[in-house]
Amino acid sequence: MLRSFAVLLLTLSACSRCAPGPSSPNHDPQLLSETLTTLTQRQARLNSYHLVVETREGEHTASHHFYFRGPNKFRGDVAQPRPLTLSFDGQRLYKASENAPLEAYTLKLDAPEAALFLTNTFNPFVPEGFRTPLLPSKGVEAVKVAHPKGPEAVELSVTAADALVVTYVLRHPSGDLLEKRLKSGANTSRTVVTEEKCDAALKLCVPVAQALEDDGQVIATIRVPTVELNVELPEAGFTLTPKAGEEPVVRELTRADALP
Predict the structure, then answer these.
(1) In 3-state terms, the chain is what percent helix, strand and coil (to 5)?
(2) Helix axes 111-122, 3-16, angle to 10 degrees
(3) What is the CATH number of the domain that holds 118?
(4) pTM given for the model
(5) Domain boundaries, position 35
(6) Counted domains in the chain
(7) Which of 22, 56, 160, 233 is the most exposed place for a label (fewest CB within 10 A)?
(8) pLDDT in tens, 27-66
């Protein structure tokens, strides 16, 4: 996959190891509580969505569709560079690829393990700003800042065990993503929202264009030319069926297979 997807997975991995660090003198516990509540409410208003995502890094391009139906149905259809479909219908995970039989996995995981596995599997399909930021239960700090797209914003920051600082910059008070930063030593990577689509009824904005920067240099861009929020998505669309005359390969997916 493109580097942009790798950055997403890096962030997910980093946040799973996050630990409390030194408290900032500007940290506002009440602001943190209010912002986390806002993010929970914001996510609850998004019952479903369909996205078409186009990613470009240099001469390399990738495109895919992503479908979400709450609370736990996901489907990603990769068109480029190589056709692939991953789907979870609430019971089974399906994988369909060219010149291979359909694979169906039954998850033999407890609820927290299954949630972590599905997040790892489908998070690369979803651009930043559509799902609630991945944050640990402890060690998150909130600071109110000025921002040209705010005009007020909240920075939520957490330091990982390996000293990687993850910061989400969110518009205040709506919780819309404006920027995300990963800082490790002297290196800083940013995901910057460059264009948004706003929905007055849902009281939120989502990114339709983003730039991925590494130490100030744009290394990739993400565009979302199609955004359908709270769209009707039939449940049957998440259950994949084999081609005529073929039998699916059915397996059980255990903790040893799913988690590092």
Answers:
(1) 20, 45, 35
(2) 160
(3) 2.50.20.10
(4) 0.87
(5) 3-258
(6) 1
(7) 22
(8) 999 999 999 999 999 999 999 999 999 999 999 999 999 9
